Amino acid sequence: MTKHAARIAGTAYLAAAAHLALALNVSVNTDSAKAVLVAIQNPSLSMDEALKIARLPGNQGIIREQNRFNVPVTTQSFARALVATAHGDLTSDSTETALYFDALRPHAAQLVALTEQIEADPQGFQRSIEARIEQFTPPDSRLQLRGFVVVGGDGGGYSFGGTDFFLNLSFNDDLIAAKTTTKHEFYHAVQGAFAKERQSGAVVSAHGSRQNCANTSRLFADIYEEGSAMYVEDISTLSQSHSESAMRQLADISGGLEHVHSSVALLELSVTGLDATTAVPFDDVYEVGFYGHGVLYDIGYAMAKAIVNNEGPQGLAALLKSPSYGLILRYIQLPGYGKDKDHPKLGPNTIAAVNQLVSGCK
Ligand SMILES: [Zn+2]
Questions:
Q1: pLDDT at residue number 241
Q2: What is the pTM of this model?
């Protein structure tokens, strides 16, 4: 997900199939977003029609994302929320209000128009995104990626570890912020395509101290995935935008990077907590590091940036096929590691945890 995912939101987006260089193929489908936008403006919308819309793959992605954040939205309640908004009824059901269809309604016509505008020129929108992603992907890649444009819920963009990605244009109609979110989620889809190759080097064990190792491996994987996607999204482009959401996102990221020592300290505490005799549960560690301001994104970004500065974009591309700890291992091997503010030194427990994973967790 994008850092500070809530309400970063993408904007009107592409459509149709497009080709990413010769090696990657991406299709972006706007059906889910358009169906919802049309439905909430239809005062005679039936429950059957609403159920059909709720079953579209993009809308199923919204439901899955809500469930991930423990909001128990279902296909049925999604459809009920659509009908309620279309009929102008107020709903007090918290799972239905979490979809924010009421807030969308005043902008629905405008968002439909934007979607159609971009459908008319998908290549124009996608070219810069594709060029950026291609730099950070091995040249011999053959990938099929699917993107779904959606409206509803509060995440700006997300993916689920596979080659599908979702872009939510609910709260934002700024093209630059939208492109940034697209690049981030697109790179997660690329990571998803290589997930098996990374896992082959990961520790997967379910008991005793090896469980701690498995959790540390998972934490390092998340830091790699978010830190590298944040680098690939190219936050520098956000400064060209004057939208409120882009400004907020940029300020949040700049603040985090200025205080990257907090991120280093949180990583050290996280590793220590996961390895304690009575270990801190992984979900608790994850929540503190990746939700809200996403403090652990910052050290991930700093490491990804240092690797690209030393080895070029293909240095980051190589990590798509490395084990979960590959980013940190490569980073601490850089000649400049620990020598200046662009190469912050990691804590001793973090280094020990990497070494333990390198030795197969024995
Ligand atoms: Zn992300």
A1: 79
A2: 0.84
